[in-house]
Specification:
Blueprint: H1 4-19, E1 25-26, E2 29-38, E3 41-43, E4 46-47, E5 53-55, E6 59-62, E7 67-71, E8 77-80, E9 85-94, E10 99-114, H2 117-121, E11 126-130, E12 133-137, E13 141-146, E14 152-157
Parallel strand pairs: 10-11
Antiparallel strand pairs: 1-2, 2-5, 2-7, 3-4, 3-6, 6-9, 7-8, 8-10, 9-10, 10-13, 11-12, 13-14
Length: 167
């Protein structure tokens, strides 16, 4: 029993961290939490650190050797590697009804997207715009790189009977 209490406390603490009220509304929509920063990362020119929040209207950019991880209000986690640039085009999520949609544009650099509530409850409601087209996320994790010459490499891995992993 003594081992269960610390485990429960840790799980509860993590849950409170993920769903606390830092996801307040601003005039430009919900804010996004910066979970981790390594190196120089900016949001519309403002230098970021872990724990900061950014608005959906911000342009998120990483310099050489830098990376950032952000958590969306629906618990989607987006990680950008060095030399990346991302803009939030659209986001809405109602935790009461689980209705929502998300669209981001990633113009360069490497990225990984682990979908949250929007993709889970609205397959097809999450899209990533890249120079070569649109990636539809229907519950799958996406990772990729957009090279300086515009070539895009993307891998999708996720649940369901029709994925490439067969899981």
């Amino acid at each position: 029993m003594k081992k269960i209490i610390p485990l429960f406390t840790a799980a509860l603490t993590l849950n409170l961290f993920l769903v606390n009220d830092n996801f307040a509304q601003t005039n430009s929509g919900p804010v996004v939490r910066v979970a981790a920063v390594s190196g120089l990362v900016t949001a519309s020119g403002r230098t970021l650190k872990s724990g900061d929040t950014i608005a959906l209207s911000d342009l998120l950019a990483t310099e050489a050797g830098a990376s950032v991880q952000v958590i969306m209000p629906d618990k989607t986690v987006i990680t950008l590697g060095e030399g990346a640039e991302m803009k939030f085009n659209d986001f809405s999520f109602d935790p009461g009804t689980n209705e929502g949609k998300m669209e981001v544009s990633i113009n360069k650099g490497s990225f990984r997207v682990v979908p949250g509530g929007v993709s889970k409850h609205n397959p097809g409601g999450m899209k990533i715009q890249v120079p070569a087209g649109t990636i539809g996320i229907e519950g799958a994790m996406a990772a990729g790189r957009i090279n300086a010459d515009g070539n895009v490499s993307v891998a999708l891995l996720g649940p369901g009977p029709n994925n490439a992993a067969g899981a």
